[in-house]
Amino acid sequence: MILNSYNNILVLAPHTDDGELGLGGTISKLIELGKKVTYVAFSTAQQSVPEGFPKDILKTEVKKATAQLGISPENLIIYNYEVRKLGYVRQEILEELIRLKKANSFDLVFIPSLHDIHQDHTTIAQEGLRAFKNTTLLGYELIWNNLTFNTQCFVELNREHIQAKVEALKAYESQGARDYLSEAFIFSLAKTRGVQAGCPYAEAFEVVRLFL
After folding, report:
1. Where are the bilayer-spanning segments (predicted)?
2. 141 and 204 Cβ atoms separated by less than 8 Å
């Protein structure tokens, strides 16, 4: 199993919840396989938090969500860059990524799709590619932001992995009843990717760089 050949995995999430949405089931499976998963969130989107919630609520929620998936607290890194303005600090973000690279030996890195049109997602995808161009890179899908998405790679999952993803996303109470947070949507997309891959459930990725 190719997935089992990777041991030190990095997930780059522009905002809290992006990683869970894009590959929550895969993270659950990697943890189940005993792999080390480091999750980096670049913005807690304080400027976008709805009225009635503390401004730092997403920091609290991402801690709960990643813990639900099995990520150790010491492997969660949270930055506080301003939402929708990551492009203004592109060089600073790149330097942070290079520091992470030098301090770790990541063999698999997940980034947003290079076809993701959200400005923050574009920044993290591009700077992630620059920093980790000599590492296997997979782009995850957030279909509401993707003008196109190449389903070149599939991770076969079971129902328990998708349920873990659903439970993790329930931590984001501040995000309300967004369609893409619903259990029905999460299971239907996983089922669709599973049909494409010939298995019950799956998550799909774009192959950005592959080292065998």
Report:
1. none
2. yes
